[in-house]
Amino acid sequence: MSLNGGHSPRLDPRATPTTAPGLHVVNHRCAGSTGAGTCASKLGQPDLGFASLNDMREHAEMIANLDPSVPLIADADAGYGGPNMVARTIQTKRCGHLSGKELVSTEVLVQKITAAAQERERLQSDILIIARTDALQTHNFDETILRLKAAIKAGADIAFLEGINSKEQCKAVREALAPTPVLLNMVEHSATPSLTPNEAQELGFRIIIFPFAAIAPAYEAIRQTYQNIKTTGRTGLASDFTPKKLFTVVGLGEAAKVDAQAGGAMYSMI
């Protein structure tokens, strides 16, 4: 995954198993799997550390396989253990906008980043390592920057400071960590001020992610549909939203092509 193509920041509207196909339909250049989205959509739980490595791997694998040409930012929480588990995670948490964090020491953070970087080198992988810290809740800004600098020195390619609370802080973190690219987490109506991709670019960010871009609208639409059924007896779906349209979005055409090229006629009447 290169950060050098084009001038606009990479946009990552975070996907869930249900919403990921829609992301590809509108041709976003980057995708992401989120711990919050996995907890909510896969487990029916809040983002309080319920998702395991296997949960996150399955979720990320599903999204990545929809279109392998689109880079995927995969949430790996805190690595699911010590250096050996971090290495295993490369082979294959509590939400950042909730309060009550307990942070590992900078030494432990460095050990985990080092383990990830070493495993990447062993595998000769082109994976990029994003070092995230939620330290702003419990430490001052300068201490937080020192944690990220230590992670970068240990092998992280991109810095991710969670819970930035002002445009001034946005600018400060970019300047403090330059030339390392910094990721901006755009959780609307939360700690970080709402910025558009263009505004984020003006502040120097190279990547911006929208963790609620898929799950929040999906929840609202599903809730409204169930309410429609309860009150009117109908879903209220648009008349052109047929089963075939849905299946086309999730790969009906490609499946029919594979079948036809193999000499089959299973989908010829669809």
- Please tell me what the overall shape is: globular
> Strands of the largest sheet, in order across it?
1-7-6-5-4
Query: Would you state the CATH class of the largest domain?
Result: Alpha Beta
- Which parts are unreliable, with pLDDT below 50 for 5 consecutive residues or more? none
Instruction: Give the total of domains.
Output: 2
Which H/E pattern describes the elements?
Answer: EHEHHEHHEHEHEHEHHH
Q: How many strands appear in the DSSP assignment?
A: 7
Distance from first to last alpha carbon: 37 Å
Secondary structural class: alpha/beta
Helix share, percent: 40-55%
What would you say about this model in short?
This is Methylisocitrate lyase. The chain contains eleven helices and seven strands.
